[in-house]
Amino acid sequence: MAMIAMANSRSAAAFDGDFAAWMGSVQARMESVLARLLPGADTPPERLHRAMRYAALEGGKRVRPLLCFAAGEVVGASTARLEIAAAAVEMIHAYSLVHDDMPCMDDDVLRRGKPTVHVEYDQATALLVGDALQSLAFQLLAEKKLTDDPAVQVEMLRSMALAAGSRGMAGGQAIDIESTGKSLALPELEFMHIRKTGALIRAAVMLGAGCGDALEEREREKLDHFAKSIGLAFQVVDDVLDAEASTATLGKTAGKDQKQGKSTYVSAMGIIAAREFAEELRNEAHDALAGFGGRASRLAKLGDFIVLRKF
């Protein structure tokens, strides 16, 4: 309980006017960037491209692009480079949501406050939307100049592929499906969510860091540790909100984890312990940023936002 009280006392400082304005600016910028980079709605095949834009635009907190931009501040990265890296990460995230919502996965009808893609269009189109968004993300990472060192850009491509693949997000989703109806122990939950949710969050941070000045290996390890901690915290908070918040607040169906018989941090620990665990992860993330000074202030505040958010 003491940890929850501490979290509440720090919330006002975490979301000051300057930080809120920065968040809003990046979110608006990414809406414009994505609209520019996605194929136009009148470009053949028109239905597929309209559905891609439907999936990726007008919704979402843009947490991964925000993390990418904040990590870019640590290394003095240019906005032009960060826009591309952030757009690629967000396209991968959007594709994963489209596929996760399909009847063969979570079978959900609401996402970001509007009908899911397979409901608005159809299942075949939704499948192709996810495929096309993933392909476009890798096209952007390959054809745009994100760093002055080609070897670093190849490593960025590799890290994104790992984060999205069977040892990352896709693998975590596979474990989630296999575990439906089963009671997972905490180490098993962590193993799953470090992949399903955490891998892409870690990729967002490290891609942003790759767009600027080179970091020492120890500094890269600390940034990655921050991302790992906050990525897991994101999922813990998601589990709490799924149990407590309304569908209208979340913009997606609330309570579906329990209805589908999925193990969550709430089912494994209870809500109070889950909130305390999220706070422990937030403190761990803050500790990982020690030594970066003001360069990492927005990363730290994003960590606060992720843990203290209500949606």
The sequence of SSEs as H and E is HHHHHEEHHHHHHHHHHHH
N-to-C terminal Cα separation, in Å? 21 Å
Fraction in helix: over 70%
Number of strands: 2
Shape: globular
Strand order, sheet with most strands:
1-2
Strand content: under 5%
Rg, alpha carbons: 19 Å
Low-pLDDT stretches: 1-14
CATH fold label? Farnesyl Diphosphate Synthase
Counting structural domains, the number is 1
Description:
The protein is mainly α. The chain is 72% helix and 1% strand. It is built from 17 helices and two strands. It has helices at residues 2-14, 17-37, 46-56, 63-74, 79-100, 117-120, 123-143, 150-164, 169-178, 186-196, 198-210, 217-244, 247-250, 256-259, 265-269, 271-288, 297-308, and strands spanning 110-111, 114-115. Strands 1-2 form a two-stranded antiparallel sheet. Helix 1 (2-14) crosses helix 17 (297-308), helix 9 crosses helix 10 and helix 12 runs antiparallel to helix 16 (271-288). The protein is globular.
Would you summarize the structure shown here?
With 311 residues, the chain is mostly helical. The protein is built from 17 helices and two strands. The radius of gyration is 19 Å and the shape is globular.
Please outline the helices and strands.
Layout: H1 2-14, H2 17-37, H3 46-56, H4 63-74, H5 79-100, E1 110-111, E2 114-115, H6 117-120, H7 123-143, H8 150-164, H9 169-178, H10 186-196, H11 198-210, H12 217-244, H13 247-250, H14 256-259, H15 265-269, H16 271-288, H17 297-308
Antiparallel strand pairs: 1-2
Helix pairs in contact: 1-17, 2-5, 3-7, 4-5, 4-11, 4-17, 5-7, 5-11, 8-11, 9-10, 11-12, 12-16, 12-17, 16-17
